[in-house]
Amino acid sequence: MTIDLNAVLQHKAINQWRLFWLVSAPMSIVMIIEMMGIDLTDAAAVSHMISYSVRWAVPIIFLVTAISALQVLFPGPLPKWLLRNRKYIGMCFAVAMAWQGLFIFLMSTFFRDHYFAEIFYLRDELEGSTGYIFLTAMVVTSFRFGRKHLNAQQWKLLHKSGLYFLWAYPFSVYWWNLSYYENPQPIDHLFYWSGFLAFALRIAAWGMKRRQAACRGSPARGAPVMFRIFGGALIAFGLFVAATGLHWQKPVTDFLLAPAWSANLVLWLPYWPFEPYLSLFIMGLGTWLATKIRA
Ligand code: HEM
């Protein structure tokens, strides 16, 4: 007996708002069970819940980041289903983040001394708050009443920037866990490489579209062979950079922060000086070269 995956994925139980409830209701129940097992009058327990809740959100934002690329690279029923339900999957991320928001609220309201002594750091606060502002704007403009205030271009700009910002936050957290601290947990590896893969897929899809556009009608317009070799070498180097952060993070950070203006920026500019993203930047450059259109 063969199963028609397309037909299965059309089932209304796993589409749109039903999919949203299917994911976010059990997730919230698990969150409540975890909460009931600990003593929320203790700051450390609230801190645990902040991490616990966001760990549900992270795989979802990485998946949302990869969806459009999956559709380009591996067209088929599953990527199509993901694309169709991207809004609802995004809403599940918002629910997990709302839980984190609740625990952050508890921490900053009832454990103010602990919050300001142990947690508050201006740049982190700016990054986190910007993330929540983006998230709120994205949720509101996912419904007709919010969407009607934006034109198509503004909507796209908001959702793309928000997605990148919300991907960048956890990706950098896990990059630092692997590249700064010497005893990362298995989950740090899992989340770092998932975040990396999500964005690398976007780069690959972008490269594929560029190559198709270049070769459309005339294969001779593809990138010269030297560009392709050099581009491929850059992509391989980017992978190497991605896997070896612990060995280069310190000298590279020292170098990038050497000028006074740069050391100043690190105090407040989110993600500055962008070390976690160097590998993906190099891979993007390689892809750009390898898919350059011949004049
Ligand atoms: C003002 C807003 C925010 C505050 C105050 C905040 C606070 C915190 C705190 C205190 C922790 C550490 C908990 C612990 O280990 O003791 C944490 C972890 C984390 N936060 Fe946030 N956060 C904010 C926004 C965000 C946003 C927007 C994201 C984006 C997805 C995010 C992603 C994470 C991640 C990935 C972790 C690490 C979880 C782990 O341990 O695996 N946070 N946050």
Describe the structure.
The protein is mainly alpha-helical and 295 residues long. It has 14 helices and no strands. Helix 5 crosses helix 6 and helix 7 runs antiparallel to helix 9. The protein is globular, with a radius of gyration of 21 Å. The N and C termini lie far apart (53 Å). The mean pLDDT is 95.
Label the structural class. mainly alpha
Q: Portion of residues in helices?
A: over 70%
Radius of gyration: 21 Å
Tally of helical segments: 14
The tally of beta strands, per DSSP, is 0
Outline: globular
- Taking all residues together, what is the mean pLDDT? 95
From N to C, what is the helix and strand string? HHHHHHHHHHHHHH
Bound ligands, each once: protoporphyrin IX containing FE
Report a brief summary of the structure:
By secondary structure, the chain is mainly α. Helix content is 78%, strand content 0%.
Any key phrases for this structure?
single chain; 295 residues; mainly alpha; 14 helices; 0% strand; globular; binds protoporphyrin IX containing FE
SSE layout:
Elements: H1 5-9, H2 16-36, H3 43-73, H4 77-84, H5 86-110, H6 112-119, H7 122-140, H8 144-147, H9 152-179, H10 186-215, H11 225-243, H12 245-256, H13 260-265, H14 278-290
Helix pairs in contact: 2-3, 2-5, 3-4, 3-5, 3-9, 3-10, 5-6, 5-7, 7-9, 9-10, 10-14, 11-14
The protein binds protoporphyrin IX containing FE.
